[in-house]
């Protein structure tokens, strides 16, 4: 390819060629051709969301995650996507005068920090370290104890801004994570850590919010047998752990909510996702002021997406198109990393999981290189865009010794085609080689 052409390994978007355009076109035509579908689809819709899609999701999620008990549609609320719904969760279930901190598993999805700040938690975001050895639950427990002692000393005993309402509960803490194929570290949280996290959440009255947006894009780490893994989740979601652990939730609210989205599967422009939690939390989310005013935030898109489920069109697309195609991109990128970067001292996270997936590969530069400087040189001199690890810090966290990603770089394999992926890694290697001289 032309050396002047840019390669973008920064952008975490789905490749447009891999989106189900034809299926969406047919589904849209079906909606518009039928008055019984078209009229409600173009109306405000119920607060909880388009009921047929809620029912299809309940069945699909049950099939994929295989929880101890089937998922009911009453546990699901249709949303405007994971980011929009994260903001809604904070609106309904937190009060910055009472909720102590937001604990973010680090490195974290950097744009989530802005959403937390907007909800009134600027300066109160705290990192929870997670690496190949696991989630630092001991550290989290120690910090939760300190936060409680501080809140008691300050007299933060009752919410001041959120009046009591029957559809909501104000939690003392929020814990945020992407447990499977995390952005950016690509790590998958172990079942041991997920169970430990739920126990801590129950003990300290925390709501765990998990972005479960990459779970369905999984494959074997072995390129000779890419789809050896079944089309089933390898580890229960945190929200599923909360359903069964130690007899189930402490109360009707529970301590976990799963934030799902069609953005990585159908297209971010669909602006459609779902939340799953206890029935009380799912209903409470539907009572967010913006939903009460205008109904579900994605009624028309939800009606279109719902048409993809009855005949298995969507399920087959994920299994027969998305998983194989993204696996090919992953293998191509990893092959280039092993050929060009590992000989230069770059390292990859060690993992013992039987499945890999998601959108990203997380690499570590050798000393004395710094990712911020290297990313700038790579963009300016070699026209390859990568994202430096420090962007994934938990913003405002004072515990810098536990939150330092100065040598980390995230590479995305979803956006560019395979040829450009390999070329981008080669250019990055040129940048590193020059910097090491």
UniProtKB/TrEMBL annotation:
One Pfam family linked to the record: Aminotran_1_2
Domain of life: Eukaryota
Ranges for domain Aminotransferase class I/classII large: 42-428
GO molecular function: 2-aminoadipate transaminase activity; pyridoxal phosphate binding
InterPro entries linked: Aminotransferase_I/II_large (IPR004839), PyrdxlP-dep_Trfase (IPR015424), PyrdxlP-dep_Trfase_major (IPR015421), PyrdxlP-dep_Trfase_small (IPR015422)
Listed PANTHER family: AMINOTRANSFERASE (PTHR42858), LD15494P (PTHR42858:SF1)
Record's protein name: Aminotransferase class I/classII large domain-containing protein
């Amino acid at each position: 390819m032309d050396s002047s052409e840019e390669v973008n390994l920064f952008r975490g978007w789905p490749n447009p060629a891999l989106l189900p355009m034809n299926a969406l076109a047919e589904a849209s035509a079906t909606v518009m051709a039928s008055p019984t579908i078209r009229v409600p689809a173009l109306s405000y819709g119920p607060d909880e969301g388009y009921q047929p899609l809620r029912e299809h999701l309940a069945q699909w999620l049950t099939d994929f995650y295989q929880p101890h008990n089937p998922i009911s549609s009453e546990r699901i609320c249709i949303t405007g996507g994971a980011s929009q719904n994260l903001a809604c969760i904070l609106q309904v279930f937190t009060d910055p005068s009472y909720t102590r901190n937001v604990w973010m598993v680090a490195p974290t999805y950097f744009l989530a920090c802005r959403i937390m700040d907007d909800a009134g938690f600027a300066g109160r975001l705290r990192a929870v370290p997670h690496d190949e050895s696991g989630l630092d639950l001991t550290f989290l427990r120690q910090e939760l104890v300190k936060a409680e002692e501080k809140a008691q000393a300050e007299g933060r005993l009752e919410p001041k801004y959120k009046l009591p309402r029957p559809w909501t509960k104000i939690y003392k803490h929020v814990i945020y994570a992407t447990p499977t194929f995390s952005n950016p570290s690509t790590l998958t949280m172990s079942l041991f850590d997920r169970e430990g996290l739920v126990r801590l959440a129950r003990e300290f009255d925390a709501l765990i919010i998990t972005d479960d947006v990459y779970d369905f894009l999984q494959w074997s780490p072995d390129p000779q047998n890419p789809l050896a893994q079944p089309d089933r989740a390898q580890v229960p979601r945190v929200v599923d752990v909360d359903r069964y652990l130690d007899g189930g939730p402490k109360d009707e609210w529970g301590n976990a909510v799963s934030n799902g989205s069609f953005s990585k599967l159908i297209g971010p422009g669909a602006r459609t996702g779902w939340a799953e939690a206890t029935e009380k939390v799912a209903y409470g989310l539907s009572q967010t002021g913006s939903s009460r005013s205008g109904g579900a935030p994605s009624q028309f898109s939800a009606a279109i997406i719902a048409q993809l489920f009855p005949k298995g069109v969507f399920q087959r697309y994920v299994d027969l198109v998305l998983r194989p195609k993204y696996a090919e991109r992953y293998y191509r990128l990893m092959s280039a990393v092993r050929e060009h970067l590992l000989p230069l001292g770059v390292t990859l996270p060690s993992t013992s999981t039987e499945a890999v997936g998601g959108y990203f590969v997380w690499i570590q530069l050798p000393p004395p290189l710094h990712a911020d400087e290297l990313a700038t040189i790579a963009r300016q001199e070699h026209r390859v865009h990568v994202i430096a690890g420090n962007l994934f810090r938990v913003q405002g966290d004072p515990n810098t010794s536990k939150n330092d990603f100065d040598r980390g770089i995230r590479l995305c394999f979803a956006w560019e085609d395979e040829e450009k992926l390999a070329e981008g890694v080669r250019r990055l290697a040129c940048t590193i080689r020059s910097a090491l001289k």
